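Notebook, p. 212. Picked up where the previous page left off. The plan for this session was modest: take the two constructs that came back from the sequencing core last week, fold each one, and keep the raw output in the notebook itself so nobody has to go hunting through shared drives later. Recording the first one now, exactly as returned: residue sequence, then the structure token string.
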Amino acid sequence: MKTKIIVLSAAVLGILAPVASAQQSTVNGAAGGAVTGAIVGGPVGAAVGGVVGAVAGTAIDPPPQRVVTYVESAPAPTSRVVVKEKIVVGKPVPETVVLTPVPDSPKYAYAIVGEQRVIVDPQTRTVVQVVR
């Protein structure tokens, strides 16, 4: 029985390893979860902890403070966009929203949607932070 659990745990971790290596925070989450799970619940705990840690590790990291400060003080564009969809962290902004790059930070862009300033990942258009 123990052999089956160990083999199953190894298989689950082997399948999830390539997915978890997609982002550094995911890898750290998976590794930390697996270690904690192994301490608490042995091999099965390691498998479950690795999965939970990987999911938790994919949470969106907030942008650096210098990016937030820039977006807070950046001049507003002449035309503002109003969208029907609610702007939510982790969801993409609509294609109609014009993104403005943040100087010296190619990982970030910003937009003003309605009265909200939002920081966005320009590659995926995913909202990283809503600036209040």
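Okay, moving on. Second construct, recorded in the same format:
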Amino acid sequence: MLNKKSIKLVEDFIECIENSEGRHKLTQIISTDCVSHGTCLGVEDVNTVVEMQSYIEKIHHAFSDFQIKIKDLFGDDERICLRFEGQGIHDGNALFGVPAFNEEITYDSFNIFKVEDGKIKEHWGTSNLYQKMTS
């Protein structure tokens, strides 16, 4: 069963992604040796909190009015599964070589988190953002 601490941990992670200022809180919720595989946007593994902060910054420089809606959240104390919908207007910097096209985009993301000692230790993610940006 998913406990309240695990729910709060994932909600805090989503807040860090959604809120450009929130990325500085990552050190409180992500283990210093955390690895994020796939990073939900098809780039290489992210191996440090600093790399994760930079990754989130790129999202906010590409999209205005960026929002995340949690669709599913379940798991146990050690593994948490999250499905969310991301939405924003690609009117900023190019992302993955795709220049801004000034339209709203909505994409789906699926994620699994491994939790150890009250922090995110490992993350696996995938999404259809690139496909939505290029279709």
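Notes on construct two before I forget. Residues 4-134 form a domain with the Nuclear Transport Factor 2; Chain: A, fold (CATH 3.10.450.50).
Flagging for discussion at group meeting.
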